[in-house]
Amino acid sequence: MAKSLDEDLEIVRELANVLNDTGMTEVELERGGLKLRVAKQVQQTVIEAPQAAPMMAAAPAAPQAAAPAAAAPAALPSSGEAVRSPMVGTAYLSPSPGADEFIAVGATVKAGQTLMIVEAMKTMNEIKSPRDGKVVEILARNAEPVEYDEPLVILEA
């Protein structure tokens, strides 16, 4: 028995509702000779929102509040080398909550010394100093998202 177009569209609507209700991004249904796949495109802009907030006309309240802190990476000091994030994740400036931070502005660091941690997919990745130097500025904020290649720390010889 052939189904009408209205019945097929109703199935698509129901599958789309399943996606919205569950947070899934794709669902596939195979029944008889009909194979139907419904997917929604997911944009991962949550992490980028604080950086883009000053240019957006209608940004959410939380990213606007974070915008002043995110604006700091745009104004890099004229001297020094930026240590950049090798991945997208969340920056942590200390090894555990309540512990002292790995580095402070004005501190001297050695090559290979841990500067901070970037958590990505539940994995803690130590960000190490590429060389000896003095910490001029810490651009990353504790427990805040960072983007790939975003400057985290400025080191001076």
From TrEMBL:
Residues 80-156 form the Lipoyl-binding domain. Pfam families: Biotin_lipoyl. One of its GO terms (biological process) is fatty acid biosynthetic process. Keywords: Biotin, Fatty acid biosynthesis, Fatty acid metabolism, Lipid biosynthesis, Lipid metabolism. Coiled coil: none annotated. One of its GO terms (cellular component) is acetyl-CoA carboxylase complex. PANTHER family: OXALOACETATE DECARBOXYLASE ALPHA CHAIN. NCBIfam families: BCCP. This is Biotin carboxyl carrier protein of acetyl-CoA carboxylase. The gene is accB.
